[in-house]
Write a structure and sequence with these properties.
Largest interface: A-D, 19 and 19 residues
Order of helices and strands of chain A: EHEEEEEEH
Strand content of chain A: 35-45%
Distance between the termini of chain A: 8 Å
Number of domains of chain A: 1
Number of helices of chain A: 2
Oligomer: homotetramer
Shape of chain A: elongated
CATH architecture of chain A: Roll
Helix content of chain A: 10-25%
CATH class of chain A: Alpha Beta
Chain lengths: 126, 126, 126, 126
């Protein structure tokens, strides 16, 4: 998934504001569902991020075109772990491991089967 | 209402990104309700902005302290018009006239009486 | 220019937060430059929005695909006026007239010739 | 440092969008400097986040008042490690360990003495 850096993404340092890399990663996670004709929601239940471990390695600038790659690290009944890496050409700009849980009525809940299947099918990098 | 400009609010131009003044104005509108022990929501219904006319007069920078002043221009059954002005000390940085409607089930709906009363009581600048 | 609505763009009302339509329009303005091999910056000088008049006509939701169309209304030495319309399929979601000035050292300044030429060439909708 | 949750901070899930907790933490880091009459910048050099390890423990909602507490974990010549915890009353909503480096001309650089002193003085929680 390609992402262009716009004015809104930068701060006065002239580079992408640090929290915005998390937005880019969320876009890539959502696109996984969209590209497969799904929404990452079901019956009012949805995924939430419960943990991230992230390294900011280089700066991205206005007008840069970034690429987000996502790899599935672990799939369990109640959570999934992904590694998301943002590249600027060959350089790694940002990398994070993210753990997602599924929530119904504010409580952790088993991930629906169609979503587990989706993750399984993408157990290769996408 | 005082607002501090943080990194997140700026862009690579070193000043506040233009859309963020609208966020600051929304914060001031919400605070009107909070300060009176209310939320700007009722029974799943809420306000939406239907029109704005805005002038960007000066730039605000990182660490600036801004002040948002709000004046009620017109109160009707189904909409309210406000003028919101953002000051940096005595200078006007931004000014907008904003028209708000009230929406239930995605349809325009009469503004609840307690909200009309709230606006009436604040028909002076706040 | 197509824009996908992500989680980050929505608010608790379930629809796009009102200030974010301004972000989408800025992306489209920047893309005009990018698509022509330019940046909307020159020698530390850049465009700033000085006035907008905007109507919010319908709501856009998570996962919607929006399209931003831009039309040049007026080109002068020191400012340019555009009309930017955001569509969801055939429906108009948002429309704004925006006036842009060019700023060097925080002062209004003539728009560089290559940018005036760019606007002239796009005097049709893009 | 107290932070109010506004519309802009929420997403369609009705709670604070996950990346926004990082914004709240950055505000608290900046306020440490502001409260001591400083800016977190010097001669064009500034801090950058190089690593975060963050846990999202509860959801914060519109109108909530959150509190960010910051504790200094480690101070070195070229980096500093902080623990930032966001509370909603007594509940921990979010917690992250963040490592900050200081950057001049895009290169890591020793943290200026006045900033090291500032961190030293705040080696207690603030």
């Amino acid at each position: 998934m390609k992402i262009r850096v716009y004015y809104e993404d930068t701060d006065l340092g002239g580079v992408v504001y640090y929290a915005n890399y998390l937005k880019f990663c969320e876009r890539a996670r959502s696109e996984l569902f969209f590209q497969n004709g799904m929404l990452p929601l079901k019956d009012g239940c949805h995924f939430v991020v419960v943990h991230i471990d992230a390294s900011f390695k280089k700066s991205a600038k206005f007008a840069d075109i970034l690429e987000v790659k996502t790899k599935i690290l672990e799939i369990r009944k109640v959570f999934v772990k992904l590694r998301q890496t943002i590249f600027k050409q060959e350089d790694v700009v940002f990398e994070m491991d993210v753990k997602l849980a599924f929530i119904c009525n504010e409580k952790p809940s088993p991930i629906p089967k169609e979503f587990l299947d989706l993750f399984q099918n993408f157990s290769q990098e996408f």
